[in-house]
Every structure is written in structure tokens, then in C-alpha cells.
Design brief:
The longest helix has 17 residues. The chain is α+β, with helices and mostly antiparallel strands. The radius of gyration is 16 Å and the shape is globular. The chain has 7 helices and 8 strands, in the order H-E-E-H-H-H-E-E-E-H-E-H-E-E-H. It has one domain: Aminopeptidase.
Length: 187
């Protein structure tokens, strides 16, 4: 676990370089962060200005400096364009568990990209961090995110009623997980 917090490693998949976010990513993040279709089923508000995105990036960069942020930018190898992020939203070292979260530009939906990135992060969590459990949650209405979790090998556990307050109201969340022995069985 400490190796992750000492410096976020560069990871690669077939389509992505998974790397740290930089200030030069602000325009790309604003492009998808300001799209209401992208932000509809997430906890954060649609970016209204480049300053909203700048604040987000500053929070991430500060998290890297504090060694408490595990967020990768998803850079398409084919274009060099940043099209999303994926991260360990939380890591509980004592319990050897983590939760992943992700967001992807709308023009990249439906191509299997997020599943590919999620599988890489899950593999990293089990192989390198020796986690026992990795989970993810989504708003009940977010069918695309639920599908990513299923395709990444996670099991639906249930619905957490009114588990998150976001955008002025409470939301029910679907929760999915995968355990280390379940993941190993897929290899």
C-alpha cells in the first residue's frame, strides 16, 4: 500500500496510458466535465467554468503532494488526449479494501474503454497492493456504470438506500465488489 502512496505508478492498457494528472490537462477535463450527460450520474456538479476544473486539478495535485490521492488520468494512446479519470476513491489499509471510481468523456462511451481501465486498476489493487476486496458504487439510474462493474468481474451486492447526498437530494446506490480469490479464479 505504501508503494502507491509514494508515487502513483504509470500503468498501460491496450488503449490507455494511465498517468498522473497535470495542469496542462485542465482544458481536456473541462471538455468532458462541462458536459451535463457526463456529470448526470456522478456526485459532482457539471463544471460551469474553467475555474471549476482548475479547482479540481489543484485538489488532485495537492493529493499527489500529500501522498493521499490515487487518481489516474486516462490518456488515449492513439491521440494523446485525456478522456477520463479512474481512481481508488478510498483505500482502507487495515481492512485491505478499496473503492474505485471513474468518469469518461461521452464520445468514448460504449467502446469497452472504461472496463479495460477498471480491470487494470483491479489487477493492480490485487497484485501490487495485496487488497482483499475492491468495490464500486453508482447511482441506481447509471446503467452504463453498473455494466462496467459487471464486465470488470464484479458481483452485484445490493442497493444502499439513500446512501449519498448529492445535487440537493439523497440517492440510492448500487454496490458491486470483487474479492481477491474471485479475481484470481479468472486468470
Amino acid at each position: 500500500m505504501n508503494s502507491l502512496m509514494k508515487g502513483l505508478p504509470h500503468l498501460e492498457t491496450e488503449h490507455f496510458n494511465l498517468r498522473k494528472i497535470h495542469e496542462h490537462d485542465i482544458p481536456a477535463i473541462f471538455e468532458y466535465g462541462s458536459n451535463p450527460n457526463v456529470s448526470e450520474h456522478v456526485s459532482w456538479e457539471t463544471h460551469q467554468s474553467i475555474e471549476d476544473t482548475r479547482g479540481f486539478v489543484e485538489m488532485i495535485l495537492d493529493g499527489y503532494r500529500q501522498k493521499n490521492k490515487a487518481l489516474w488520468g486516462m490518456e488515449l494512446k492513439s491521440t494523446g488526449q485525456l478522456v477520463g479519470t479512474i481512481d481508488f476513491v478510498t483505500i482502507q489499509e487495515k481492512h485491505r479494501k478499496a473503492e474505485i471510481g471513474y468518469v469518461l468523456a461521452e464520445d468514448c462511451w460504449g467502446k469497452g474503454y472504461m472496463t479495460e481501465a477498471a480491470q487494470k486498476i483491479i489487477a493492480y489493487g490485487f497484485n501490487e497492493l495485496e487488497l482483499e476486496r475492491i468495490q464500486a458504487r453508482c447511482f441506481v439510474a447509471n446503467k452504463g456504470s453498473a455494466r462496467v462493474m459487471e464486465k470488470a468481474g464484479m458481483t452485484f451486492e445490493g442497493i444502499m438506500r439513500r446512501a449519498m447526498f448529492a445535487k440537493g437530494k439523497f440517492h440510492d446506490l448500487k454496490i458491486y465488489s470483487i474479492l481477491s480469490d474471485e479475481w484470481k479464479a479468472t486468470l
